[in-house]
Amino acid sequence: MINWEQVENEAVEILSRYIQIDTTNPPGNEIKGALFLKERLEREGFECVVLESEKGRGNIVARYKGDGTLSPLLLLHHIDVVPAEADKWLHPPFSGKVLDGEIWGRGAFDCKSLGVMELMVLLLLKRYGFKSRRDIIFFATSDEEAGGKYGVEWMVENHFDLVKTEFVINEGGLAGFSVNDKSLYLCQTAEKGVCWVRLTFKGTPGHASMPNGKNCISDMATAIERISKYQSRLQQSPITVRLIEGLAKEQSFMEEEEFMGLLDNASSSRVIDRISDKGLKTILNTMLRNTFVPTVVQGGKKTNVIPSACYCEIDCRMLPGENPESIIGELKAALGDITNFDLEILGSSTPTESKIPTELYSTIEKCTKRHDPEARLIPFISSGATDSRFFREKGITAYGFAPLKIGESLSSHLEKMHGHNERISVESLRYGTKVLYDIVFDFCR
Ligand SMILES: [Zn+2]
Question: pLDDT, tens digit, for every residue of 174-192?
């Protein structure tokens, strides 16, 4: 029998120390985190491979051998964290302070806690001599927060044999937040693609005291206004239908049938307006349509000079099924008769999706319910990209699922993620470790 009290103490101690290793990206310095994990793994007899894609950019892989009857499962998390403004925190972001049942610091949620849960699962399986039918691969990586170039992308390109698998559990799920006293567990099964574009407008330069009617700044302003007001059409997919059907039963904002109006182009916006949870509102809106958001504006140097050129940049996010070509077509259509610009793609990633249900999805569902009978597992499409996309592009099933207990509204949780005062409750860490242990145990036995 596993002594969960002891596991909790151990997990808290490891997470606290892991947070104290500053892996802010940039520059990352993930190697320090990788070596910390290596020491913990080797202490219990695991062999580890540590690889640096560039100096300081560490990645680590360890493997729990199965008998090979079934295909491998990979447990993924990233070592790097986003920057923290220390003066805005109640406790220093790299203190790993344990206070009143909470562990404080950057990475407490995103995503060192998941890493510790995965590590604990591996250690427990080994300590109890678990006979696995699958290889279980532990993979901690760098650079997720800046796009994965030195992390998963590099590993998949250069050392695919080490991380080759059929199933991945990664970050990206939103677990255990409450709607109407019931816990909802969102499993990320797809993510939107990104397309960043720059629109450059050209005009006739001149002295501002003599307006010439060809001011590129005004043209750009009209374009930005159109893009801001534009709303893309609603797109249904099996995932969104399942999500909205699932939510409709649990929510208390309105009648179930009315809530289903989210899937109808005519009523969708009206229904969204009536949802009072800000976080949920944002998630639903981004899952149902492509989005276009102007984010950068550059032009003009002097107040009395009409510039010859100016530009703006637009962050476009596309749903599965779209590609850069189709999203740019939509952007151009939204701009209508405004065509006097040059368009440049600054970067893009394709949307990715994993099928449901699979054996892994069903196992996650079953184990979640075992620990929380009222729980409901719902698939969702995230608007941001995670490392899962590199695996999905190879046809590997990847799910974002961290079985934590958020126990608060989605909006306040989302604020904490990359914001100030990031922290996780000890209870949540223990709960998550238990659920993940069950998932891996059931899936691999
Ligand atoms: Zn993350």
Answer: 776 767 677 788 899 999 9
Q: Is residue 227 part of a domain?
A: yes
Query: How long is the chain?
Result: 445
For 181-335, strand residue ranges (E) read 182-191, 193-202, 206-207, 291-299, 305-306, 309-318
* pLDDT (tens digit per residue) in 365-391: 999 999 988 888 889 899 888 999 999
Say which CATH number the domain at 45 has.
3.40.630.10
The pTM assigned to this predicted structure is 0.90
- Tell me the CA–centroid distance for residue 118 and ligand 1, in Å: 15
208 alpha carbon – ligand 1 mean position (Å) = 48
Contact between residue 392 and residue 77 where contact means Cβ atoms under 8 Å apart: no
Tokens 């319910």 belong to which residue? Answer: 369
Instruction: Specify whether 97 is located in the same domain as 140.
Output: yes
Both 35 and 67 in one domain: the answer is yes
Q: Do 202 and 223 sit in the same domain of this protein?
A: yes
CA of 210 relative to ligand 1 center, distance in Å: 52
CA of 94 to the centre of ligand 1 (A): 17
What residues does the ion ligand 1 have nearby, CB within 5 Å? Answer: 110-111, 171
Give residue 207 CA to ligand 1 midpoint distance, Å. Answer: 49
Average pLDDT, rounded, for the chain: 93
**Maximum pairwise Cα distance, the chain:** 84
